[in-house]
Amino acid sequence: MTGEILSENQSDGQHRSRFGGLWTDRIGSEHEVASRLADGLIGKEDAARLLFFIEHGYVVIKNAVDYATIDSLLEEINRIPMTTRKYVAGSNNESCFAEAVFDNPAYRVLDVHVNSVFARKVMFAKEILRFLEIIFEADALAFQTLLFRYGSQQGVHQDGAYVVVDPPLNFAASWVALEDVVEGAGELIYYAGSHKNEEFIFGNNRKHFQINVDGIPAHDAFLGHLEAQAEKHNQPRTTFLANKGDALIWAADLAHGGTVATKSPQPTRLSLVTHYCPVDARPSYFDLDDFNSIILAEDGGKYASSWYDLRPRAELDTPVRKVDKEYFALKVNGVKAEIGSRINETSVNMHPEFLEIISDTDPAVELVLPVSLKNLQIEVTVESEKNETLQVFYLNDAGGYDEANSLTHPTTKGLTRVHLNWDGDHSVDRIRIDPGFEGGRYLLRNISIFGDK
Ligand SMILES: O=C(O)CCC(=O)C(=O)O
Ligand SMILES: [Fe+2]
Questions:
Q1: Which of 20, 68, 125, 131 is least surrounded by CB atoms within 10 angstroms?
Q2: Quick check: CB of 105 below 6 Å from ligand 1?
Q3: Domain boundaries, position 442
């Protein structure tokens, strides 16, 4: 057999992309579908799905996942606010433990499939897994999941810019609706057929974006390119108004995103996104020793994680990759605290070892953090009867509170969300929040504290 070395800028003559791809990306792969069907390797329904996928870059599988599985997953998810340090969540900028950002639309739970057998059953639902194994011609390895409670509102993109696999086009993703999608909730959108558009290359030879090398202008150019290509090829934006249990599988190069939510308050849009590759491809994070274990799922399928060390000796359900932010939230929802009254611990929906409240007769609350944090950010939502000032102190070196170690923020009648930052090296483990009222009622709706360990 003679080997052939391809130059970087040349396609292999079989695929439209210089980076190759799956067999479904090969030019003329429709004919391969016909011959596989004729050979009895696939059935009629498989063939129909494959032809659709090859032409449009995605396929919808209605009722791919049963309600009972989804409901069991949602029950687990709803327990996250009461669970500490088990689930990781991420926004576009940072990661933290999921409990405190549960209701924050900017965050999604990462790699929930490690903790949840039901998430595994969703991502490896029978017809999803079958389709993946056909396009991969190998076992499917799920290497990343994102559980969205709210729409991502992420602009149209191709996952390959952020999801790095070798070879680069050897992956696919599934999107499973965990509830009926409401219009205006930030639906999934895509440009059908866009996987065949001209491809955008970062830095001459990459499908993935490297912010430090390419810079933001290159990223803007990438997004602009996707829009311009869709326009050039008359590809309309299509919205996926899924019903609970429906799945959409997209090809690596399909341009897709989430619309901006137009309904207020923003409705939930519970969905699970999974990125898979053939088991013989390699997610880039496999270069880190702690994260290249592959586990067999119960009903077929394999999985890995870049957040959890899945080696046999390790505890399975504890994230080990460093989270960027420690994030503590204190929820005092619905409990009215009057001046002079004590906010007692039973009114706090929080693990006792996590955050302790010491508050005697004065209206201030003192929070004792389980660890010292730097670069503190505090967010307090206060509902008050009149215009006032909120003052937040941190403990000075002498172990007391003084004006120099405090920040103030005006609060207005009604609801005010106060955001305070302390940059710098000062380590803080106690905070005093003083609404500064001389009388009247106030309600602390929410206190969130985060910072660097
Ligand atoms: O669900 C969405 O809004 C888009 C999610 C997405 O693009 C992704 O996770 O890759
Ligand atoms: Fe995406």
A1: 68
A2: no
A3: 326-452
Same domain (yes/no): 333, 297: no
Q: How far is the CA of 159 from the centre of ligand 2 (A)?
A: 5
Q: 87 in ligand 1 pocket by Cβ < 6 Å?
A: no
Question: Does one domain contain both 275 and 182?
Answer: yes
Ligand minimally distant from the alpha carbon of residue 269: 1
Helices and strands, counts by H and E, the chain: 6, 24
Task: Provide the domain count of the chain.
Answer: 2
Q: How far apart are alpha carbons 243 and 94 in whole angstroms? A: 31
Residue 9 within any structural domain of the chain: no
Q: What type of residue sits at position 389?
A: T
The verdict on pTM exceeding 0.85 is no
Q: Is residue 2 part of a domain?
A: no
Q: How buried is 267 (Cβ within 10 angstroms: 0-12 exposed, 13-18 middle, 19+ buried)? A: middle
Q: Check which CATH number belongs to the domain holding 82 and give it.
A: 2.60.120.620
Distant-in-sequence contacts of 211-217, Cβ < 8 A, 24+ apart: none
- Condensed to tens digits (0 to 9), the pLDDT of residues 322-345 reads 666 555 544 343 333 333 333 333
Other Cβ atoms less than 10 A from the Cβ of 266: the count is: 16
- Which ligand has its closest atom nearest to the C-alpha of 248? 1
